[in-house]
Design a protein that fits this description.
The chain is of the alpha/beta class. It is 25% helix and 21% strand. The protein has one domain (46-399, 408-435): Alpha/Beta hydrolase fold, catalytic domain (Rossmann fold, 3-Layer(aba) Sandwich). β7 (130-136), α2 and β8 form a beta-alpha-beta unit.
């Protein structure tokens, strides 16, 4: 009798433990879903929040026939492109878990990693004419490490196409010249192809296109936006056999690097300034509104000759510069996945030594959303998030009425200098600068919906 009672007690304990474990597993699954980088942290500014659309993702392969190439001239260049889009998602569909790898410290092998997402693979797209955004990643990077951006923007009514540039290994002697030549050509080719094919499918409005690039992708989008490469620059001279010359300023194929229907450009920690890639005046060829995002302690691409110099040089357009004071180069990636936390080299792909990555993502999403909504969708209500801001975020003030919630967003407007959409105390360490396009005498002023 005693042993039977003990057996019952043990069975009950086991059942209770099993139930607790199941509950814990479910909670863990929910927490994992919440950890998708495209879901902003609680201290993120207002516009960082996800939009109202469910998100789908699919991968397409595009072939650039007889492409000019450093490694294999006149080959067919096959590019995989990951496309995120507003979608109809069936109940219970599993979100994507992205998988890729990044080069480890030489001579080690590439390190594989995975990243949770919110998008559902091959979900049914919603057929509307959304704006199209082309994304170009950095040197040796992976598109899925930018899921904080691609998924978030797709949830807000954009179709976002990120190019897998398939860079050569850094041990390849011609790796960097290959990137210099191919990056802007890849961006222009993918933009042309998707503008046509997705418009035919009723999914995008090709006349509302934007470019976003990180690091070497920043170099690519600045060039594809109209920045004329200097054929005599240190950058051009790195490319053998003068292969870049026809695509530089004055070259016979210069227009092949240009993207048509362009309404906005975002360059995150853009490369090229320290090599004078566009000379002294080439950046002035950009006419689409430009948002630059950078850290002022970037040891990979110099801030003074890079983003800060581009702010002053891009005189052909309205432009903005968001600066993370004290931040380095790794501001463009998702937070580091667990697999990348075992060496300083690996984690440095993702994490900044000073800034918490979730904070960088939240601020960047807020500003990028305001910028794209204004210039790509023509939503002038977003101007208040960009214009008239005090340059030093830390100096902004808001005497909030009694009873205002601790996490309330600044309303901006008269008597409020805390950046609109930011929480009190959370614009510290940020700087925002604007330079206006000076209207040509006698010419009509451009509006966001019709800006060239």
């Amino acid at each position: 009798m005693k042993s039977d009672s003990l057996r019952v007690v043990l069975l009950l304990l086991c059942a209770t433990a099993a139930a607790a474990a199941a509950a814990s597993g479910a909670a863990g699954a929910d927490a994992g879903a919440q950890s998708a980088p495209s879901r902003p942290a609680v201290d993120s500014p207002e516009l960082a929040q996800l939009g109202s659309y469910a998100v789908g993702v699919r991968t397409v392969t595009l072939v650039d026939r007889d492409a000019v190439d450093v490694l294999a001239p006149h080959r067919d260049r096959r590019l995989q492109v990951d496309v995120w889009y507003p979608a109809t998602v069936v109940q219970g569909a599993r979100p994507e878990v992205y998988k890729s790898s990044l080069q480890s410290e030489p001579p080690g092998a590439p390190v594989p990693f995975s990243m949770r997402g919110i998008a559902v693979r091959d979900a049914k797209p919603i057929r509307e004419h959304y704006p199209l955004i082309i994304v170009s990643h950095g040197r040796s990077n992976a598109t899925v490490a930018l899921s904080w951006l691609t998924e978030n923007l797709a949830s807000k009514g954009y179709v976002v196409a990120a190019i897998r540039h398939e860079d050569p290994l850094r041990s390849e002697p011609r790796e960097f010249p290959e990137i210099l030549l191919r990056r802007p050509l890849d961006v222009a080719f993918v933009a042309r192809t998707l503008q046509r094919s997705l418009a035919e499918q009723g999914q995008v409005d090709s006349a509302r296109t934007a470019l976003i690039g990180y690091s070497m992708g920043g170099y690519a989008v600045l060039t594809a936006a109209g920045g004329a490469l200097d054929p005599n620059s240190a950058a051009a001279k790195l490319v053998p056999d003068q292969l870049l010359a026809p695509f530089a300023q004055g070259g016979a194929r210069h227009e092949e690097t240009r993207v048509q229907g362009l309404r906005a450009v975002v360059a995150i920690a853009p490369w090229g300034g320290s090599y004078a890639a566009w000379g002294s005046a080439g950046i002035a060829g950009i006419t689409a509104p430009l948002l630059l995002i950078s850290g002022d302690r970037d040891q990979t691409v110099d801030y003074a000759t890079g983003a800060h110099a581009f702010l002053e040089a891009a005189t052909g357009t309205q432009r903005y510069l968001l600066t993370f004071r004290g931040a380095g180069h790794a501001i463009g990636f998702d937070p580091a996945p667990q697999e990348m936390g075992h060496s300083l080299w690996d984690i440095s792909w993702f994490e900044d030594p000073v800034w918490r990555k979730e904070r960088v993502i939240g601020v960047s999403l807020h500003m990028i959303t305001a910028f794209l909504d204004r210039y790509l969708k023509g939503d002038e209500s977003r101007a208040a998030y960009l214009d008239g801001l005090v340059p030093d975020g830390a100096t902004g003030q808001w005497q909030a009425p009694a009873g205002t919630g601790y996490g309330a967003y600044s309303p901006g407007g008269s008597g409020v200098t805390l950046w609109k959409g930011f929480q009190r105390g959370y614009a510290e360490g940020l700087e925002f600068q604007r330079r206006d396009l000076k209207a040509v005498e006698g010419a009509p002023a451009a509006s966001p919906a019709t800006a060239p």
